[in-house]
């Protein structure tokens, strides 16, 4: 028998052994040895023990699907927010972001049912989380800052999104409602606190925001930010810009 004929016989035996292992009974030995490579020195020389490379296949009693193993105290997230599911809400409510302002940012129905105070908190958190779509979507069409060019408006907000500050508390001072139905007006006074990232300097401002609805066809009748009156927050120094401008006017005259 020539070398090629011997190799054909060996390959045929290997193929038969492999098929027996795959379709055989459950009593197959846990450790199967396959003589998978035979190297011959001559046409009639038998294979030596050193020329046989054994391949082993361990029999597994149970196959685990990848990604199904869990460590103790681990659970799968179903919120879709990733790490934000357990992160505290920037508004300072002591609730998780998902259970607080995150609901208004992601759920139009939750936003439509929210009170004016909740919308104030959600807008504050939107600046912290860079939820620019919510900032735009919760702005009244009659607001002076409203822009018909939405893409340009988004870029404007991105450049003024308090990137150099850490927003960590929105304290509600007062909330009041006037009128009824579609003509109802809500006013919310709040103190927005923030920390400068580089210097860690604490700063704050106080604002009284006015909210109105613009009909069911806009944000499902939710409260929309129409205007705001900014004041000095309690404990913060009064701004000196007006005094400085008056001094400059006197010097020029």
Q: How would you sum up the global shape?
A: globular
Instruction: Estimate the mean pLDDT confidence.
Output: 75
Terminal Cα span? 118 Å
Largest sheet: 4 strands, antiparallel
Sequence stretches where pLDDT stays below 50 over 5 or more residues: 6-61, 70-81
Q: Report strand order across the widest sheet.
A: 3-4-5-6
Strand content: 15-25%
**DSSP helix fraction:** 25-40%
**Helix and strand element order:** HEEHHHHHEEEEH
Question: Structural class per helix/strand content?
Answer: alpha+beta
| Cα Rg | 36 Å
State the total count of DSSP E strands. Answer: 6
Number of helices: 7
Commentary on this structure:
By secondary structure, the protein is of the alpha+beta class. The chain has seven helices and six strands, in the order αββαααααββββα. It has helices at about 5-25, 100-105, 110-115, 115-130, 130-135, 150-160, 240-250, and strands at about 30-40, 50-60, 165-180, 185-195, 200-210, 225-230. The strands form two sheets. Strands 3-4-5-6 form a four-stranded antiparallel β-sheet, covered by helices on one side. It has a two-stranded antiparallel ribbon with strand order 1-2. A hairpin with a 5-residue loop joins strand 4 and strand 5. The longest helix has 21 residues, at about 5-25. The chain is globular and about 45 Å long. The relative contact order is 0.09. The model is unreliable at about 5-60 and about 70-80 (pLDDT under 50).
